[in-house]
Amino acid sequence: MGSLILWWTLIVQMLSFFCWSSGAGPLCCSDPPILDPHSGAGHVEKLGGLPTYVIGSPYSKHGAVLISDVYGYQAPNLRKVADKVVAARFFVVVPDFLKGDPFIRADTKRPMSVWIKDHSTDEGFEFAKVVIQDLKNRGYSAIGAAGFCWGAKAAIQLAKCDSIKAAALLHHSYITVDDIKEVKVPLVVLGAEFDHPEIVKKFEELWILTS
Predict the structure, then answer these.
(1) Is residue 138 over pLDDT 90?
(2) d(CA 28, CA 103)
(3) Cβ pair 65, 144 in contact under 8 A
(4) What does DSSP say about strands 91-95 and 50-55: parallel, antiparallel, or unpaired?
(5) d(CA 175, CA 195)
(6) CA distance 18 to 43
(7) C-alpha dihedral over 169, 148, 44, 48, to 10 degrees?
């Protein structure tokens, strides 16, 4: 367990680059990425029934699940993060939890308030459980998850039920105080550019008190 926490700390350091450089926060949907299905050094295969970007040694016993924001698994920056996390000896997966239907800001007929009805965070959590079980069936015994914005909610839901060994939340859009109180595994909360530092600090202090 100690080695996992050490490696997960290294992962968090690398993931923080993505979180702070992405301009997330109230403006996080104002600068959408240019999606590229061919980006990254890994490849796409099915995992838990979902198309999934994967990279890393299949012989590792440590898995990391990256849960995307509303723009999905083809975002080049997200895949770059996955490529970096491999250096910590993880097998890294970025599933398509949005089922090929990322949020498109230019689609004025389907604003976020409409799109989100088709992609609840609860659904993301259910998909994530299936992916994690598939990883366990393949022999990965220690698995962590990092969620970005929309994906942070799914990550913390996993952290509440012992499905994973550690969790990282990057831009905690949908996270509540009650969520933090129920976490059962090591947790790191990373704010983005426009997130209020006092909220991030409050979440961290609360997790320490309740863990």
Answers:
(1) yes
(2) 12
(3) yes
(4) antiparallel
(5) 12
(6) 20
(7) 60
- Dihedral of CA atoms 112, 81, 90, 158 in degrees, nearest 10, equals -20
140, 136, 170, 135: which is closest to 154 by C-alpha? 170
Helix (H, G, I), strand (E, B) or coil at 134: helix
Which phi and psi (to 5°) does residue 140 adopt? -85, 115
pLDDT-derived band at 189 (thresholds 50, 70, 90) equals confident
Share of the chain above pLDDT 70, in %: 76
Q: Please give the structure tokens belonging to residue 167.
A: 């969790």
The answer to whether 45 and 54 have CB atoms below 8 angstroms apart is yes
* 27: number of Cβ within 10 Å: 11
Supply 91's token pair. Answer: 């097998």
> Would you report the helix, strand and coil content of the chain in percent, each value rounded to 5?
40, 20, 40
pLDDT: which is higher, 38 or 171: 38
